[in-house]
Amino acid sequence: MKTLLALIIAMILTRSNFTQEYPNEDFYLNSTNDLYSLNYLNTQSSGMGFTGIARLNDISGIENNPASINIPSKYQLNFQYTFKGKHALNYSFTSDNIALKHQLFSGSAGIGWKINKNLTTGLIYNNPKGYYYDLGEGVRTDEFGNVISRYDFYINTVMHSVNIPFVYASDKFRIGLNANYIYGMFSVPGEGFTTINYPNGFEDGNDFKGSTSWFKLDGGVLLHLSKQFAAGLSVSTSMKSTVTYSYPDGTEDHAMASIPWKGGIGFLYSIPGSSWKIGADYKYERTSVITYYKDRHNLHFGTEGIISKNWILRAGFFTLFDNRKDEGNLHWSDKVGAYDQYFVTFGGSYILKNTKINLAVLTSQLSAGKYQNFLVNAGVTFDF
Fold this sequence. Notes:
- The protein has about 375 residues and is mainly beta.
- The protein has helices spanning about 5-15, 35, 45, and strands at about 15-20, 75-85, 85-90, 100, 105-115, 120-125, 130-140, 145-170, 175-190, 210-225, 230-235, 240-245, 250-260, 260-270, 275-285, 295-305, 310-320, 330, 340-350, 355-365, 375-384.
- A 14-stranded antiparallel β-barrel has the order 2-5-6-8-9-10-11-14-15-16-17-19-20-21. It has a two-stranded antiparallel sheet with strand order 1-18.
- The radius of gyration is 22 Å and the shape is elongated.
């Protein structure tokens, strides 16, 4: 029978074994799971190496820089969905076939409103992160080892996010602010939990659950320095929140979850005499606020070009580096750097009057490390 679930999950989520006690920090909802959980819900940027800090975008541009939102007509509708491929994981301490899988809630829907020539606002709901951790089949037994039941053993995590951006635009510059409310939640089947009062686990339907919420602000600027050159800057505030754990026996516990401070700078160059553009972003995340992790630094490159009246093609590359600390008192089950990912992206748009149909493919399957992910993002934008 699977016991000590909290400890097992902690080992799985961190892939580590520490020589000292781990602090009271949440494992389920913080940024340590970004190696798989990110949904990249900005289709045009996703096809272009997820660059976009200095590039005009639709209402989903809040993912990179709220100042990049550009609505050519009075209103804009945008819908997107990301599908993630299965990522199998092998651990020395279990013989189960466990894997990270697609989480159903991984989309976005938004509406933009151009108030006047200079002011734009909107409303966007999205799922910036989520994962389904399939831990294989669980078995409940009695004190004599007899099988009571079998069940699917998993961790199901999702974030629901509501965004209200405000953008001021002129011919030379744009300033954007985004108010963002995030509600994060996870659940684990209660059958895998054992306590003194419930030594054989809990009956079906009594799950271990956790939830928390954050409110943060995102801001950015975008400067049109010349006809060929644009630059952008984006920032996102850090927030901490208490995660409430609800156990199957009715008791509660708490832990701290952090959304780190983020910042980025980007450039976009339009090649003279050509329809092609080249973008580059540097993105920073202060994940050192999470114990045993260091700050995250990643690079993004991409290009796009108009092929015909109706077609735009994109391609790009970006990094997602392993940000665990390499210190003498830590004993990770996989060496630091083993989770480095190098993504190659492809994408395009088909334009039909006021409708733009977007598609992007992101893959890190050429990476040599433990993680090789594959994502497909599809979206449609309608201006009216």
